[in-house]
Every structure is written in C-alpha cells, then in structure tokens.
Amino acid sequence: MIEGTADATSGTASRDRAPLWMLFAVLAVPVVLGVAIYLLATVPLARDLHLCDEAIKAQLKAPTTYKRVKAPDTYSNSTTFYSIEYDAANGFGVPLRGKGSCQVNGARTSATWVEYNF
C-alpha cells in the first residue's frame, strides 16, 4: 500500500489526511467568526452614515459638493445619534464647513439632520 491513497481491500482512506482536515476546520472556524463579527459591526454603521449623508444633502443648495469630513462621534439611547462635520459649497459656490447632529431611527430606515449654528 502507498501512503496517502485508499486501501483497495478495505475502502478506507489512509490516516495521513485526517490531521489536515482537522487543521483546516480549526483554522476556518475563527476566520468565519471574525468575518461575521466584522460585518455585523460595520454594516449598521455604514447604513446609518449613508442615511445621515442623504439627510444632510437634502438640505444643501449644492448637494453634489458634499463631503463628510469628520464622523462619527456616536451616542445612543433608544435611537442613535451621530455628530458629523462636512464641507459643501453654498449657493454662490463658496465652500463652507457645517456641523450637526444626525438622529437615526431605531428601525434604521430614516435619519433627521439638525445643523449647529455657530
């Protein structure tokens, strides 16, 4: 019998391959769990920021010039709030910096933007 091949008389595989499968399983489980945790942590944040970006753009004179500069400072009760800073041009094309608070509803389907006046 040659090592690593099936035994013609018994039909069983050689034992040399068993540790390789166990090693694969042991390494694959933490990788899969790590990816799942990463996705669960980042997808809601990305969705929330997208909702906030859309709420901000809806109030701008030149929404195509919008660029988020700083975010998020997060605080949460039953709803989630993000403190966001952005740059965008006004109606005359002059770039301005804005800052405010974005409130995302619990179902993560809409956001409300409140601009800080300073």
Written account of the structure:
- The protein has 118 residues and is an alpha+beta fold.
- The chain has one domain (15-115).
- Helices cover 34% and strands 30% of the residues.
- The chain has a 4-stranded antiparallel β-sheet.
- It is elongated and about 70 Å long.
Q: Distance N terminus to C terminus?
A: 83 Å
- What's the helical proportion of residues? 25-40%
Integer count of domains = 1
**Total number of helical segments?**
1
Strand order, largest beta sheet: 1-2-3-4
What structural class do you assign from the helix and strand content?
alpha+beta
Question: What would you say about this model in short?
Answer:
By secondary structure, this protein is of the alpha+beta class.
List keywords for this structure.
elongated, 1 helix, alpha+beta, 118 residues, 30% strand
How are the elements arranged and paired?
Blueprint: H1 18-57, E1 67-76, E2 80-89, E3 95-104, E4 111-115
Antiparallel strand pairs: 1-2, 2-3, 3-4
